[in-house]
Predict the structure of DivIVA domain-containing protein.
Amino acid sequence: MGVYHSRNALAGPLTADRLSAVELPRTSLGRRGYRTDDVDALLHRLVYELGERSRLLDDARDENDRIKRALRAWQAEVREAAGVVWSPAAIPGAPSRPGPDGRRAGER
């Protein structure tokens, strides 16, 4: 499957506005409908563009997850180096409750 290279309004990235403005050429006199080759080319282009956007979105989500994991690991290292035991009570403004050992969050 190749990429559709348009001679009309579809040159460049697809957007909803540009796609709604597309007018496919009609068949020659005596026949009804659109030219099959033009419709097939448009469908191939749509499949390619949507597949590419889905791939880019998946890549962005994967990178976002990687960054979140790295941030959490870094925060854990900083807390451990500072000797702070993390708990929801360590969040500013949250009520402080003693842990299982009777100490409050952040106490040594």
User: Anything to note?
Assistant: The helical segments are 16-20, 36-82.
